Amino acid sequence: MIDYLIKQLKDAINSIENLDEKIEAMNRVRTALTEVSPFVEPVDCVRWVPADKVQANEYNPNKVASPEMRLLHTSIKLDGYTQPIVVYRLNNGKYEVVDGFHRNRVGKEYADIRERIHGYLPVVVIDKPLDERMGSTIRHNRARGTHQIRSMSDIVIDLSREGWSDEDICKKLGMELDEVIRLKQISGLKEAFANHEFSKSWEEFEKKYHKEEA
């Protein structure tokens, strides 16, 4: 029964001549299969979306030097896209990158890749509020060791303003308390230490490091 349905489905998709319509049909099939899948992971449903609908976020300080970009291009050229781009669907129908900005760039900026994937990009969609998406981006970057400390301090302040406690930041971003305090210190903002919990942590931090310096 399943084999028969698969054949029918393949024949139906192969009969679609318009490329965009064919890709949309494939996305619909993938979405439908996800609805009955025992897996709830984002990667269970990789969709292809037009590259011009995928845009960068404004908070990611992750940067890749030219040699690494060329290597990434070579990797995708020889191995294909082995990892989708993690995105969030915006209200205007576009997608904001959470992780994979440079995979996104390769698909847009290198003609050989852009032509091969027909101007589309492979994405998985996550649905989280902005502060949680920022946390997701940082976790992905830190796991690769590519997050920049100066911009990281700005993000820590932004998350503090969103109501994240020092404990939340440590837990959700995989950071140590000392690291969070140093990043808040870099920011130079007194408001970063306004809450009682962090004030206590700051006193412990000062005692520890002032003692070591002495």
Automatic annotation (TrEMBL):
Xref: SMART domains: ParB
InterPro entries in the record: ParB/Sulfiredoxin_sf (IPR036086), ParB_N (IPR003115)
Q: Which keywords does UniProt give here?
A: Coiled coil
- Name all ParB-like N-terminal domain ranges: 47-142
Instruction: Give start-end ranges for the coiled-coil region(s).
Output: 2-36
A Pfam match: ParB_N
Q: Keyword Glycoprotein, does the record have it?
A: no
Q: State what protein this is by name.
A: ParB/RepB/Spo0J family partition protein
